[in-house]
Structure formats: structure tokens, C-alpha cells
Design goal:
With 496 residues, this protein is α/β, with parallel strands linked by helices. The protein is built from 17 helices and 18 strands. Helix 2 packs parallel to helix 8. The longest helix is centred in the C-terminal third of the chain and has 19 residues. The N terminus is likely disordered.
């Protein structure tokens, strides 16, 4: 019996020391990212179609990427080519490579304001910028050569052949197009796979949103918690080259090591949730499939039933279509199946009309909404609305609905902020790439949670403290566990 008690005590101690017992407090998130040594050359278009204030936006983008790099002669070296009808080397790879010197060099760049000889600029990069004379390093497996081309128009010369020569020389090319750029030209320049090397933004005012993509592209060993590259539902704790998951106070870590469960409340609480999804033609069919996965990712985190979470889905483009109302489906399986079957509307972007429908219809009792139950709307869009959104967005929030705004690609930040509830910073999200929306999904899973009565751990913590005091006391008296076990065994033999 004594041996059993000892075993139980040890098991209890192990359990109490586990982070899963009552959750772990949030840990500070890291911000460091070690980048693989790279010869990086920016090739930036300063033709007359790029206005002075727009050129300043390009310089901000370049600066933001540089700020995230490990720069130096033995780390990442940065060069900058400025082009229009002619080509100018603003910074060579052998130039000053401190971060301060690089940023100062970027600030000094002035637009050339003539034609658009993109092919000539790429040829200059191959023959000059990436040459040993200009500071480029010989090809080695431990570093790479990268060119980032930023342009907003159709080139006045050919780019296909010269880009092919650049790629054959081992240069990885990213092509960023702005505004009325010719997409075919971008694809001719970029390395494979094209969906990772071609980016488009509607205007220079949003080019800075691509910064995070390139910061991640150059990361080798990063703080995965800081970049969001983890599967933790609540708290990510960085460890060297890896991470572990933990939970907030009042939650316990599940056996999968990723998700958390609350004793009461949490994602199992009553909730009426409606997704308002942009089905405009700019989304494109392959990205629409990613949006459906995003919806189902959040549905997976809910406890769906008549007394807990209900889900509704509305799609909009030039018109609004209710896919299914609140409460129509009673299980996650049925909801997810209905989401997968949703067809793509592929027309305009009438976000204001969709918000009005959400307020007037989606959260009405006739469409399944329950009186007194928290109402949450998640609006997903990839571009500027073609109608006025302010009145409907304000009415939704004034009605007590908690509104989240998720933007991708060319979504307009001002519109996202106008849709989002207060505090705005916690209710709107943006990513430049549809392929990263799952990271937003992870954040939303916890933000839509309605916490009622989180677990009470105080009594358990007090008991843990008493047990630890007892163990310390035993250690101070030099009573060894082996000795105790032998005495117990001797006693058992006598009894037998």
C-alpha cells in the first residue's frame, strides 16, 4: 500500500509540474530571424509613370526588407539598381554593408523619370551587379543570388531571353507588379514556381504589405513564434530552432500538444457566427478554395449544437447570396460539407451591400439568430469595395455585433479598419498572400471565443506548493527515495 501511495504521489507531482495542468501564462514573443547569406539586388523601376510620392513607397518597401536581414560582408550583401530608359547602379554588393549605411543609401535614391527598359536593367544585373568585380560571391551551396524586380508598366524592350539567362546563371528572380503592369511580363521574368515568385499589388500605397513575405523568404532559422509559423492555438513558446505550445491561465493543453480546452465557456459557449465572404472575380478559383479551407479551419474549433455555436455563411460579389442561415446545420461535419460545395460567384465587390444584408437578415431571428446570444461577423475580402460601406459597417457595430475584418492581397486597410470592432487592432487582419490565411485562421479561433468561467486553479496550486514544501523538507533531511523504497519492501516481506 505504501508503495502505491508513493507512486501516486510521484505521478501527481509530474502532473502538477506539467504545463497542461492549468495552462501557462503568455510568453514574450521573439522577433529575431537569422537570414541565409544572400547576394540580393533590388531592380527598381523609376520610369515617368512612377510618380515621386509612389517612388518613395518603393524606397520604404526596400528599407523594410533590408531592416529584417542579417547584413554584412559574410552575411547578406545588398545591391540596388535604379532604371528607366537608362540604368544606374545606386549601390554595389561590395559597397558599405552596415544596415545604417544601406538605409541611408536607399534614402538618397532619386527617380530617373524616363522610359521603361526592364530588359536592359536585368542584363545589367547579370553582367555587372552580380559580377565578382562588383562584390558578388562565387556560387556555393550555402548561399544564393536573388533579384527583386519592382515595376509598374509594360517594358519597352524584351525581358524573356535575358531573364532566362539570369535564371540559368543561378539568379532567383522575384517579380513584383504594380497597377497596370503587364502580368505576362512578370511571369516571363520570375523564377519557378511562379505562384511564389510573382506578386501583384493594386497600387504603390500597399506595396509595403509584401514586406513580411520577403522577410520570411530570406529566413533560415527564425523565431517561429514571432513569424506565426506554428500550430499553437493559444501560446507559442520559442526554443532554440523550435517551439512548444502552452495555454493561457484557465485552459489546459490537449493531448495533441497544440490545442487548449477550458473547463467551462471557451469555444463551447453559445455563439452565432456568420461568415461574409468575398466571391468577386479578383479572388480567382484556386484562391476561393483556400478561403473555403479557412472557413472550415475556424469551424473545426467550434462546439456546434443548438445550445452552443451556430454558423451561417453568406457570399457576395455584385450581389449577395446566403449559402446557409444560422442553425441550418447542427454538426461540424454538415457545415464543412456545405462550405466545400459552395460555388464561386466571380463578379464584382459590393461589400457595403453585403454588410447591410448581414445586419438586416443574417442576424435576424427568422434566419436562425438567437436572442441574447453573442453575434460575431467575419468579413473576408481581397479588394476595394465598389460601393459605400460606412453606414452598414457602423450599424453592425452599433447593433452589438462583434465584427472581424480579414483582408488579402489588394484589400484596402482603411475599409478593413472601418469594418472592424474596437479595439480595431485586435479585430482586423491582413496578409498579402492567400496561402498564408491559415495563420489568420489560427488567431481568429481564439479571438471569437466567449469566455464565461475559466478553470479555477488556485486550490490546485496551493496543494502543489504544499507538496513541493514537503519534498524540500525530505531532501533537507537527506532521506533518499531509495532508502524509503527498501524499507517499504522490507515491511511488505514481513507482512507476507
Amino acid at each position: 500500500m505504501a508503495r502505491i501511495c508513493c507512486a501516486l504521489l510521484l505521478s501527481l507531482l509530474l502532473l502538477l509540474h506539467s504545463p497542461a495542468a492549468c495552462g501557462a501564462p503568455p510568453q514574450p514573443r521573439g522577433t529575431l530571424c537569422r537570414t541565409k547569406p544572400t547576394d540580393l539586388v533590388f531592380i527598381i523601376d523609376s520610369s515617368r509613370s512612377v510618380r515621386p510620392h509612389e517612388f518613395e513607397k518603393i524606397k520604404v518597401f526596400v528599407s523594410r526588407v533590408i531592416e529584417a536581414l542579417d547584413v554584412g560582408p559574410n552575411a547578406t550583401r545588398v545591391g540596388i539598381i535604379n532604371y528607366a530608359s537608362a540604368v544606374r547602379s545606386e549601390l554595389a554588393l561590395q559597397g558599405p554593408q552596415s544596415k545604417a549605411a544601406l538605409l541611408q543609401a536607399v534614402r538618397r535614391i532619386q527617380p530617373l523619370s524616363t522610359g521603361t527598359m526592364t530588359g536592359l536593367a536585368i542584363q545589367f544585373a547579370v553582367s555587372r551587379a552580380f559580377s565578382a568585380a562588383e562584390g558578388a560571391r562565387a556560387a556555393r551551396p550555402d548561399f544564393k543570388k536573388v533579384a527583386i524586380v519592382v515595376t509598374d508598366g509594360r517594358p519597352q524592350d524584351g525581358v524573356q531571353d535575358v531573364s532566362a539567362r539570369a535564371r540559368a546563371a543561378g539568379i532567383e528572380i522575384f517579380a513584383i507588379g504594380v497597377g497596370r503592369v503587364d502580368m505576362g511580363t512578370l511571369r516571363q521574368m520570375a523564377s519557378e514556381p511562379l505562384d511564389e515568385h510573382v506578386d501583384y499589388v493594386e497600387s504603390y500605397s500597399v506595396i509595403e504589405k509584401l514586406t513580411h513575405k520577403f522577410q520570411e523568404a530570406f529566413c533560415v532559422v527564425s523565431d517561429l513564434c514571432a513569424t506565426g509559423d506554428h500550430d499553437c492555438e493559444q501560446v507559442c513558446v520559442s526554443t532554440p530552432g523550435a517551439y512548444r505550445c502552452a495555454c493561457r491561465d484557465g485552459f489546459s493543453l490537449n493531448s495533441d500538444g497544440k490545442t487548449c480546452t477550458a473547463c467551462n465557456g471557451g469555444l463551447g459557449s453559445a455563439l452565432d457566427l456568420v461568415f461574409l465572404i468575398d466571391g468577386s472575380k479578383s479572388v480567382r478559383p484556386e484562391n476561393f478554395e483556400l478561403v473555403k479551407k479557412f472557413i472550415n479551419q475556424i469551424v473545426d474549433s467550434l462546439e456546434v449544437s443548438d445550445k452552443q455555436a451556430q454558423v451561417g455563411l453568406v457570399q457576395y460579389s455584385s450581389s449577395v447570396r446566403q449559402e446557409f442561415p444560422l442553425g441550418q446545420f447542427k454538426s461540424k461535419k454538415d457545415i464543412k460539407a456545405a462550405v466545400k460545395k459552395m460555388s464561386y460567384m466571380e463578379k464584382g465587390t459590393m461589400t457595403g451591400q453585403a454588410l447591410k444584408y448581414l445586419v438586416d437578415s443574417s442576424f435576424s431571428v427568422i434566419n436562425g439568430a438567437r436572442p441574447g446570444v453573442p453575434k460575431v461577423g467575419i468579413v473576408f475580402t481581397d479588394g476595394r469595395s465598389q460601393d459605400y460601406i460606412s453606414d452598414a459597417a457602423k450599424k453592425a457595430k452599433d447593433s452589438g455585433f462583434r465584427m472581424f475584418a480579414v483582408g488579402v492581397g489588394n484589400a484596402v486597410e482603411d475599409e478593413l479598419r472601418e469594418i472592424a470592432s474596437e479595439p480595431v487592432a485586435e479585430h482586423y487582419f491582413y496578409t498579402a498572400d492567400f496561402r498564408t490565411i491559415s495563420k489568420i485562421g489560427k488567431k481568429l479561433q481564439m479571438k471569437i471565443c466567449v469566455e464565461e468561467d475559466p478553470c479555477e486553479c488556485k486550490s490546485i496550486m496551493k496543494f502543489q506548493t504544499k507538496v513541493e514544501e514537503l519534498i524540500n523538507s525530505l531532501q533537507q533531511k537527506h532521506i533518499l527515495w531509495e532508502s524509503v523504497a527498501k524499507r517499504i519492501e522490507a515491511l511488505e516481506n514481513k507482512i507476507i
